Amino acid sequence: MSLRLIIACGGTGGHLFPGIAVAEALIDKGGEPLLIISKKEIDALAMQGHSNINYECLASIGMPKFYSPKMIKFLSSFFVSYRKSKNILKSFKADAVLGMGGFTSLPPLLAGRANRTKNFIHESNAFPGKANRVASRWADHILLGMEPCGSYFKDKNFEVVGTPLRSVLRKEYDKTEAIQHFGLNPDKKTILVMGGSQGAQVLNSTIIQNLNKIYEAGIQLLHITGPADFERVKSHYGEFSNFSCVIPFSSEMHLAYSVSDIAIVRSGASSLAEISAYSIPSILVPYPFATDDHQTLNANHYVKNGAAFLLPENKLNANSLFEILDQLFDENNEKYKNMKSSMQSLSVVDSAERICEKINNHCN
To answer: What CATH number does the domain located at 4-165+349-363 have?
Structure first.
């Protein structure tokens, strides 16, 4: 495959990591990707360890409300990014442009349209983001992570291909090694608690308020707090630190998923794709202030398919949490087995390869 593909994916981890996954798959197939990312710190951090992937940076763009005084700055920044994108397309000699969502993807896609280059967008969530709703007007083809999103693109050409996973998250790992890495007990069930890259204070607080009950239930925790809330959470563990691993973040999520029997997490599309790849039954606590409440829509898709429980943040407490945990850890365990199977059925491990093939086919 000799495809030369520009992947516009900067701004957030939810756009960036799937973009990196597509780049990895394309390189494996003999193609050449060029990532266009933002100047945010998260983008720079994410590119560490990927020296084989070339990238260019654009100014971070977030669209304000139409009548906001910030609109003038937005339009100026957009125009600068558009001009730079046109130059990048010309010098790279791209066969196609793939936008992964977010406003950083719009200038390259608009430049692609002006250059008559094939345009594609990928939407991971069950409800399309504002940038992809705009970009769909210029897209030759739309690629989706979840089937429910198709209802918003009825008059467009679209296919459900799943959400791309980085190569490190698509391999099997020895569970014993992973348990040793986090210092956990191999004879206990492990719950992964994670609020995304920035953590989730409400979720963290509910867990630390119920440490005694969790300990008495014989369950151990792998608690990824997020950097901002780590010190507060860690200080509450005290005598319970011997049945848990509390860390601010993990750069080795493949090991974290490998040890987890249940996950209590937010419902961002990338996190859900990763959890389903490891077939982990989950309790999903959507971030209530996510744009268009898309995390609740994501969660509903997994609940409808029998892979997860939905627990809204305003109903998250000891009673609601343990009511679900009791169902998953009962002696029968049929509920757990069924959820694990359902979660596995939602996994699309080869999503990145599918995307590369779809784009290559449309360009030839």
So the answer is: 3.40.50.2000
d(C-alpha 284, C-alpha 262), whole Å? 11
| Span 27-49, pLDDT tens digits | 999 999 999 999 888 788 788 88
What is d(CA 355, CA 167) in angstroms, rounded to the nearest whole number? 14
CATH 3.40.50.2000 placement within the chain: 4-165+349-363, 169-345
Q: Hey, what CATH class is 169-345 in?
A: alpha beta
Cα–Cα distance for residue pair 133/86, rounded to 1 Å: 22
User: Does the pTM of the predicted model rise above 0.85?
Assistant: yes
Each residue of 265-310: pLDDT tens digit? 999 999 999 999 999 999 999 999 888 899 999 999 999 999 999 9
Helices then strands, each counted (H, E), the chain: 15, 13
Reading the block at residue 363, the tokens are: 């360009």
Alpha carbon distance 319, 306 (integer Å): 22
Half-sphere exposure of 319 (CA within 13 A, CB side): 2
